[in-house]
Amino acid sequence: MMNLKEQVGIKAAEFVKDGMTVGLGTGSTAAFFVAELGRRIREENLKITGVTTSNVTSEQASKLGIPLKSIDEVDSVDLTVDGADEVDADLNGIKGGGAALLMEKIVATYSKDYIWIVDESKLSEKLGSFKVPVEVVPYGAEQVFRKFKKAGYAPTWRLRESGEKWLTDMQHYLIDLHIPEISKPEQLANELDLTVGVVEHGLFNKMVNKVIVAGKDGVRIIE
Ligand code: 5RP
Question: Mind telling me which InterPro entries this protein's record contains (predicted)?
Answer without folding.
Answer: NagB/RpiA_transferase-like, Ribose-5P_isomerase, Ribose5P_isomerase_typA_subgr, Ribose5P_isomerase_type_A
